Amino acid sequence: MSAWDPWFSNLVPKTTASMEQFIQLASDMHWPYQIVDGGWYVNRQTPEADVTKAVPAIDLDEVRRFAAAKNVRLWLWLYWTDADRNDQDMVNWYEKVTRYAAARHLMVDFHGAFKPTGMIRTWPNQITREGVMGNEYNKWSPRVTAEHRVTLPFTRFIAGPGDFTPGGFVNRTAAMFQANSSPQQDWYLATLTKGHERVKSNQ
């Protein structure tokens, strides 16, 4: 279980303060993790990308300190070519990353990957792999139907667990669907804050 910064809207900037807000939410909800999604390191998805350097707005050491103090662990998203540009074979790349992560007691979730193949039986630290059309598609497409969802366990997930994004905070009915639309920032922040306070008051 994890808090996740707002990948769907791009309305909340990536800063130390915004990350700490989501870490605090995870702590208050007793969730063990916070996902730090794209945008935290410099020059992502370019030849100049450097996953060892955070963008100027983020003090990653402070974010890690704050997360540790709140007993929340971090998952860092990065684009695969920003970590390794030379491998010809993606299967070998997946195994190499998973093997190195296992030696360091790290979990791996390949998002935007090809379908699960049973590799988790050899490397259980590769907890899941996406390779599936999840509910993030609802941001720009109505293709993720109820029929699609109930078919996945018998198709894409036969050889292992899949990373299916369950949705975002701005779900709409089919009649209200608008591709690529986002809520107003003030409305979104107010909704997040009120929902957070409501949950806390009910504990």
Main features:
5 helices; single chain; two-stranded antiparallel ribbon; alpha/beta; 203 residues; Transcription Regulator spoIIAA; 30% helix; 3-stranded parallel sheet
Short summary:
With 203 residues, the chain is α/β, with parallel strands linked by helices.
The coarse overall form would be globular
Radius of gyration: 18 Å
Overall tally of domains: 2
> Quick one: biggest sheet?
3 strands, parallel
User: What helical percentage do the residues reach?
Assistant: 25-40%
Structural class: alpha/beta
Number of helices: 5
Characterization of this structure:
- By secondary structure, the protein is of the alpha/beta class.
- It has 2 domains: 1-86, 2-Layer Sandwich (Transcription Regulator spoIIAA), CATH 3.30.750; 95-171, no CATH class.
- 30% of the residues lie in helices and 12% in strands.
- The protein is built from 5 helices and 7 strands.
- It has helices at 16-28, 60-69, 90-103, 146-151, 185-202, and strands at residues 2-4, 33-36, 41-42, 50-54, 73-76, 108-110, 126-129.
- Strand 1, helix 1 (16-28) and strand 2 form a beta-alpha-beta unit.
- The two termini are 18 Å apart.
Give me the secondary-structure topology.
Layout: E1 2-4, H1 16-28, E2 33-36, E3 41-42, E4 50-54, H2 60-69, E5 73-76, H3 90-103, E6 108-110, E7 126-129, H4 146-151, H5 185-202
Parallel strand pairs: 1-2, 2-5, 6-7
Antiparallel strand pairs: 3-4
Helix pairs in contact: 1-2
